[in-house]
Design brief:
423 residues; alpha/beta; FAD/NAD(P)-binding domain; Enolase-like, domain 1; five-stranded parallel β-sheet; 26 strands; 25% helix
Length: 423
């Protein structure tokens, strides 16, 4: 199969992010020596997104923390990298892709890893200077340079993970931050009301002001620059910076035009094959069948892009592989380091079991379905002399063994004692 791919045009990767770069790295690690070409819309080498809203934005890490692999890796491993270039069309019938420079590339296998685009708000004033979305390295550079001056009035629109991380960074720099969101409690749809209130209290202790639930009626300005936000209640919030962080939309335009099966992203099997022969999808755009749940899941977190890139590469080489890893993400806000493993779709609407203390900001939250752990969130738990919380959480999920809420909450027993003997 590897020889067939090479003679048919090799492998083309549409998307210069983590999934695409990881796929290229995996292809070379697995011994594929045929042509590999990455087409990236940005001018930057493929980079990691988590630092953009965390340590890079806060200035605790430089741009050396951002690249997926060192810039020289691509030439050293004979991987073509065409930056500032977009794929404008794909032709599964002829196995070719069309680029915005007018050229055409043939492929034996194609990986679609074009990621997602931030949602925008079509409001009066949304085009003013000082109003932006947040997604790219350039976005993070611009925001960091402004936030670092301190003393500014920042309005954050969006109470999800990115909005909360950006609010934490802005407040840490000494700015006045007001956060708006449609939920009555931030993050409630992701982790439930009690833990949402935990994160709200954390932010309020650091000076963040909440307006929840609230939406924006208009963004005001003067001489082309933002001056404030008018909420749906008529309240006027002064603003030097407005950041819109209301989620992202998967970039499925190419797939739709090519007739691929879509449903909240590009539908794939567990090996990330799409409905078109020779075409795979990974990262934010892939709505992949997960072997654990038997359902399709689309994840916008970096671990999904990392693992998806590996699986897609191996599948293109006809290896027996599946995206079976348990979803994972993390956040750092102020003095809280949080990690989450599991299936939010299974945890939704259930009350978590708490081990530890929310007041002390050291705890684990377990979500169960039919007495089986389906998700777990650890907050500052590595400070305790216990085995890694996330390793245990993933093992509990994989074991599918019923366990009582009382055992999960019993802090006198070590985490390793929760696992079945054969785990």
């Amino acid at each position: 199969m590897a020889e067939d791919i090479a003679t048919a045009g090799g492998i083309v990767i549409a998307g210069g992010g983590l999934a695409g770069a990881t796929a290229a790295k995996t292809l070379r690690a697995e011994g594929f020596d045929g042509p590999v070409t990455i087409i990236g819309a940005e001018s930057h080498h493929p980079y990691l997104r988590p630092p953009l809203s965390k340590e890079y934005l806060l200035g605790t890490a430089g741009e050396e923390a951002v690249p997926v692999v060192p810039p020289g890796w691509y030439a050293e491993n004979d991987v073509g990298l065409r930056l500032a270039t977009r794929v404008t069309g794909i032709r599964p019938d002829t196995r070719t892709v069309e680029l915005d420079d007018g050229s055409t590339l043939a492929y034996g296998s194609l990986l679609l890893a074009t990621g997602a685009t931030p949602r925008t708000l079509h409001l009066p004033g949304s085009d003013l200077a000082g109003v932006s979305t947040f997604r790219t390295l350039d976005d993070s550079r611009r925001l960091r340079s402004r936030l670092a001056t301190g003393g500014l009035k920042v309005v954050m629109i969006g109470s999800g993970w990115i909005g909360m991380e950006l609010a934490a960074a802005a407040a840490t720099y000494g700015n006045t931050v007001t956060l708006l969101g449609l939920e009555a409690i931030p993050l409630a749809s992701a982790i439930g009301p009690d833990l949402g209130r935990f994160f709200r209290s954390l932010h309020e202790a650091n000076g963040v002001i909440f307006r929840l639930p609230a939406s924006v009626r208009e963004i005001t300005g003067d001489s082309g620059a933002v001056t404030g936000v008018i909420t749906d209640s008529g309240e006027v919030l002064p603003a030097d910076i407005v950041v819109i962080a209301v989620g992202v939309v998967p970039e499925t335009g190419l797939a739709q035009a090519a007739g691929l099966a879509l449903d909240n992203g590009i539908l794939t099997d567990a090996s990330l094959r799409t409905s078109a022969p020779g075409v795979f999808a990974a990262g934010d755009i892939a709505n992949a069948l997960h072997p654990f749940t038997g359902q399709h899941h689309r994840s916008e977190h970096w671990s999904n892009a990392l693992n998806g890139g590996k699986v897609a590469a191996r599948a293109m080489l006809s290896q027996d592989t599946a995206l079976s890893t348990i979803p994972y993400f993390y956040t750092d806000q102020y003095d809280v380091s949080m990690e989450y493993s599991g299936f939010t779709v299974l945890a939704a609407g259930t009350e978590p079991v708490i081990r530890g203390s929310l007041e002390d900001k050291e705890f684990i939250a377990f979500w169960q379905q039919d007495s089986r752990v389906v998700a777990g969130m650890s907050v500052n738990w590595p400070r305790k002399p216990q085995p890694g919380a996330q390793k245990t959480i993933k093992a509990l999920i994989s074991a599918r063994t019923p366990i009582s809420a009382e055992r999960l909450a019993d802090i006198s027993a070590g985490l390793d004692q929760l696992l079945p003997e054969d785990a």
